[in-house]
Amino acid sequence: MPDHDNSSRTVTVPTCDTGPVTVWEPDWCAGSKQEHQSGGYRVDITHASPDYEFTVSTSCGRPVILRACFEQCPFTERPPGHVPFVNVEMDGDWHPHSSYDLRRLSDTLTAHADRPRELADRLDGLTNAFDATKGGTPAAANPEKGSGG
């Protein structure tokens, strides 16, 4: 296996199908018990980095809106294959991304950044209309455009 990050570490993982398997371990691998669990199958051996969390500041704290980590499955036959990739957690599911996929995701997130600004502008209009009526709710302040997008 190529030495992508100049690591010389190895780890031996006892497997139920092929016995002990010694594999090169990249420097970025956290080496947790989940990835290197004893008694699993050889194909399930996974290297994973610690999570990178992308948070936003809200009035109730800093929720994680996106989570990602480097991964590599050295014995898999499924995509993305044996090469390292970034696994991105969105809406409770993990999605493998190549560098190309990550750039597309970044472009999509940038495009979506305009939507909350549009909602903020609409909210300003609704708030101003509300204030103008001294607390009443004029028909013009109906936020019917509020469904997702």
What layout of secondary structure does this protein have?
Blueprint: E1 10-15, E2 19-24, E3 47-48, E4 52-55, E5 64-72, E6 85-90, E7 93-97, H1 99-112, H2 114-132
Antiparallel strand pairs: 1-2, 3-5, 4-5, 5-6, 6-7
Q: What does this 3D model show about the protein?
A:
This protein is of the alpha+beta class and 149 residues long. 22% of the residues lie in helices and 26% in strands. The chain contains two helices and seven strands, in the order βββββββαα. Strands 3, 4, 5, 6 and 7 form a five-stranded antiparallel beta sheet that branches. Strands 1-2 form a two-stranded antiparallel sheet. β4 and β5 form a beta hairpin.
- Rounded mean pLDDT is 85
Helix content: 10-25%
**Shape type:** elongated
Topology as a string of helices (H) and strands (E): EEEEEEEHH
- Low-pLDDT ranges: none
Beta-strand content: 25-35%
Amino- and carboxy-terminal Cα gap: 45 Å
Tally of separate helices: 2
Q: Over the alpha carbons, how many angstroms does the gyration radius reach?
A: 24 Å
Helix/strand structural class? alpha+beta
Number of strands: 7
Instruction: Please outline the major beta sheet.
Output: 5 strands, antiparallel
